[in-house]
Amino acid sequence: MREQLIASLHRALDATHPTRLTARHLPEQPPSFIVSVGKAALTMLEAALERFPHTPYIAVPKAEGRPKGAHPGGVVLPAGHPVPDGRSLEAAQRVLEAVGRLGPEELLLVLVSGGGSALLCAPWGVDLATKQALTQALLRCGADIQEINAVRKHLSRIKGGRLAAATQARVLALYLSDVPGDDLSTIASGPTVPDRSTFAEALAVLDRYGLEFPQVRAHLRRGLAGEIPESPKPGDPLFQRVENRLVGGNMALLEAARTYWQGLGLPAVILSDRFQGEAQALARFHAALVESIRAHHQPFAPPVVLLSGGEASVRVRGAGRGGRNQEFLGWLGYYLGERGVWALAADSDGIDGNTEVAGALLAPDTWARSQRLGLDLKAHLEQNDTHAFFRALGDLLITGETQSNLNDFRALVVGQGLDIF
């Protein structure tokens, strides 16, 4: 079952490869310029370069690399993630200068995937150091992606539709979604998408989580007072020359996994691609569902594979290492105890939290093995140190960076009693 769980993730990633998803939506007209940004920047760009091999481009990925079809007219500018750095500033400035040179008769192709918020950073009203500290604070406090981006959009010259406003060209933007619900304005902070969030909402996020940041608050209050302009909103005439299109998201990943499990003869159901909230609460829900299936055959009869996605959050209280998927599995193991289950949880980009792993695996005997090794799961959870727990068990999942980003992937195989198939 361990091998099948891992295979289900890899099959799903293969079926939803960004190059394949992007190729289906490319325009007939050759663009004058291509901007590709995000964790899937290079793989999305490869599809465009296969169709338009001579078009100049700027790619801003997280990792070093060259896309297939690279040519002297293109440049790759790796930048910082999840916290922006000096390279993020340089990349944003290069992009803004390039698109600013395009005329109204030209076509700009923009390829966007998750991670772009940090990779393209053009601070507005604050300095880089402040934006870095704010990004770290937002990531640690448990704010969800919509809250984080409401703040980031109002501190940027490129996010929240401002990239589209920076060019006179017609714009076709293709988005690969890493957010629950596939809201294009949230993916990479929607650089070409109308922004519904406001200065007031951004300020409310800081209040909600007790984040001070005087320089940030001063800038947001200026916006609230009308002293500086809001981000472009729905109905703004500039979007008459912009087309934003979704090319793939978490549901496609889960559907591919469902096909894999059904091919093995196991019923598989997709619970949702939109789960959000604390990893602990999400694990408690999944544990209760597992117990209901075992005890009452409700809402599904065993055996069944439960698939879910979305994006959990973690309120960091300890000094350990981990990520939302390792945290989810740790709490799932804690709530199920000796009545464990086969499960896998991973980030589809291959990097979970502040670790080098995609996620981890849980087994029916995880609790028993941890007891034999003298591991205290609750203590690891309290320190946000699930990485050390799963490492000691040999249950970390390492894929390397996938150059995709379709949010989280969870698979639980539920039978009756101890789920040993």
TrEMBL record:
What UniProt keywords are attached to this protein's entry? Oxidoreductase, Pyruvate
What's the protein here called? Putative hydroxypyruvate reductase
GO CC terms, sorted: cytoplasm
The organism of origin for this protein: Meiothermus luteus
Task: Give me the gene this protein comes from.
Answer: ttuD
Molecular-function GO terms, alphabetical: glycerate kinase activity; hydroxypyruvate reductase [NAD(P)H] activity
- Does the keyword field hold Oxidoreductase? yes
Which Gene3D superfamilies does the record cross-reference, listed alphabetically? Glycerate kinase, MOFRL-like N-terminal domain (3.40.50.10180), MOFRL domain (3.40.1480.10)
Q: What is its EC number?
A: 1.1.1.81
Domain MOFRL-associated: residue ranges: 7-220
Q: Which residues form the MOFRL domain?
A: 304-408
Enzyme class label: oxidoreductase
* KW Calcium (keyword) present: no
